[in-house]
Amino acid sequence: MLELDDIQSGVLRPRPSPYVATYILLRIDERSAGRELMRRLGAAVTTAGSPSSPLPDCGLGVALTVHGLEALGVPRDSLDSFAWEFRQGMAARAKALYDDGESSPEHWEPPLGTSDVHVVLTALSPDQARLEAALDRAYTALRELGGIQAIWRQDCHAPSTGKEPFGFRDGISHPAVEGSGIPGSNPHEAPLKSGEFVLGYPDETGGVSPMPRPDVLGRNGTYVAFRKLHQRVAAFRQYLKNAANSPEDEEVLAAKMMGRWRSGAPLALCPFHNAPGLGADASRNNDFHYSDDPTGYKTPRGSHIRRTNPRDAPVAGVVRLHRMIRRGTAYGPELPDGVLDDDGVDRGLMFAFIGAHLGRQFEFVQAEWVNGGEFLGLGDAKDPIAGSHDEAGVFSFPKRPIPRRLQGLARFVVTRGGEYCFMPGLRALRWLAELRT
């Protein structure tokens, strides 16, 4: 059984609705202060076993980069036992992640991707006023502690519409994790082994993946990939307008590229028309598979949601070995409906991947499924929405009597920065607090 009271809530529990969130990056300048911070956080973070937060009106999660573990004085043999992708850091993995061109680390928003980032705090609350009150208390505590600097902040929100900046309902699909007691959103998908997402337990291969040493540090922890993703909403709208024959056709093209209508209704269940009621129904909007649609007449094989989770579709490899828990929260103001010109405002998603295997989960999906097409027999075609296009991207989907082909896809999503982190269990936070090296 999962030791839920030792696992941070953000690992397994979906976020509440509605909510606002803030990401705060910290730098540890004094080792003793960093260890005291770990002690205080150990008493403040929310656990998967108790969704009610120790902090009034605010849920808190904490993760550390490899530089943060070094700043705390974690012994070298322990550091060397972490996943090698984590030790390299996200910026060093840019080539594998297709973070090139405008998304390359030299263009990232500082201090993202640098050795200054030690701790990532995620705070959630039902509304901005209560979040600000909690953060004021936190900043006061940091000033009193000394030796810790807050170096970056990103405020986020979950819109009342439940939609991300491109206008699609978000947060629909999440897997069930064996032993968590938290149901998944797809009744066709059996719960995944807990070791796919939490270290110290058997995974889908039947074994237990390597865990950071000592066991008290690694057990009940997981890896997290945080990414700030800028979305070119006006460019996406303009592309659809130019490629479509009518406003109704724009919505069809958007749905084919995503695999869902903007309402969240899946093409697998309503391929010919939008169904807002279905899209808003959490008991039905993820209740589908692809085995009855091998060609992709309903849901194109190259669409975003079919690429990132092929479900029961025949693909190269075992889908369950590459499943992820994904959290996405919008930042920046919404672009008003109908606006086709870029207003210069930064907006997009703060994305978080959670899993026990950075390589075969996050990096594999990003490289092979989002930015490749061989696993689906699509050659070098990329994800039409999230792929790293260069103004020459293509997207084709079956249509009678002849397939339809979109050309000239640009990069609609630009990486503004990111970090690979380790999210420790509560006992691990206490162990870090008590280091005496």
From TrEMBL:
GO terms for molecular function: heme binding; metal ion binding; peroxidase activity. Keywords: Iron, Metal-binding, Oxidoreductase, Peroxidase. Its cofactor is heme b. It comes from the Bacteria. Residues 54-138 form the DyP dimeric alpha+beta barrel domain. GO terms for cellular component: cytosol. SUPFAM superfamilies: Dimeric alpha+beta barrel. Residues 177-214 are annotated as: Disordered. This is Dyp-type peroxidase. It comes from Corallococcus aberystwythensis.
